[in-house]
Amino acid sequence: MEKEIAEYLVSPGKKVLLSDYPTQYKGPQVKGNAVLELAEIKEQLDELQERLYAADSHSVLILFQAMDAAGKDSAIEHVMSGLNPQGCQVFTFKTPTSEEYDHDFLWRHYKALPEKGRIGIHNRSHYENVLVCKVHPEYVLNEKIPGYSNIKKINKAFWNRRYESIRNFEQHISDNGTVIVKIFLHVSKEEQRQRFLDRIDDPAKNWKFSSADIAERALWEDYMKAYEEALTETSTQGAPWYVIPADKKWYARLAISKIVLDTFKKLDLKYPVLPINEMHKLGEIKQQLLNEK
């Protein structure tokens, strides 16, 4: 792994303070070179995706979490645009439906897992249940969990069990061939303010803005604390978190692409080798086709 992206990896067991992680990239990379490098990485990912599909032994799950306007949608668009859409599944998780509330909080996310040979991208994820739900514990009441009839009962022990459920879920799918990459796009409050203003000023972006975004912005510190606790509790050897500086979108896209590429390379995927008898058949069929000429 490049030293550059290794710096963004949250080591298992490390207590996370987001103030220790930059939101602004200040390295030597420039935008023009980053665009060219991203294009090269896309070509490599295209070939590696084909190996993933051919090997049919693993799936790759990439999770994106961030505050509003951090650039999740554009990161997914730019980094994953070189992939074959037939082997890639993108899910955006919003407020649960009544059917989803009638199941445990992981149910809808388990349903959305990629099959072997495929890449799954989750725009927001099961982590909403320890992020937005932690800032708004009243949302947990919609799950109708026995013994939790009011928010006073949703205490530290409750959240610890939920973190444990997430770790167990990720360990289970990892043991069964799903490689997990978790990306937190770390944007500054000032950059979010500017992006909100851009959305308001640009008629083509008005649809991206909601008055509810401002209400959530007022809870910024609560969200930062929730993220710190979630990253601390759930960055594991098999499912690590990366905290990516996101104030410059072009750099965040490059960093994410490097992480995804590094993940694929570590799998060391090979194309399947046919049995000897099948190889002989290929030779015979090739000769038949040549004889037709």
TrEMBL record:
Gene3D superfamilies: P-loop containing nucleotide triphosphate hydrolases. Residues 37-267 form the Polyphosphate kinase-2-related domain. Keywords: Coiled coil, Kinase, Transferase. GO terms for molecular function: polyphosphate kinase activity. Signal peptide: none annotated. One of its GO terms (biological process) is polyphosphate metabolic process. Transmembrane segments: none annotated. Pfam families: PPK2. The keyword Kinase applies. Residues 31-58 form a coiled coil. Belongs to the polyphosphate kinase 2 (PPK2) family. Class I subfamily. This is Polyphosphate kinase 2 family protein.
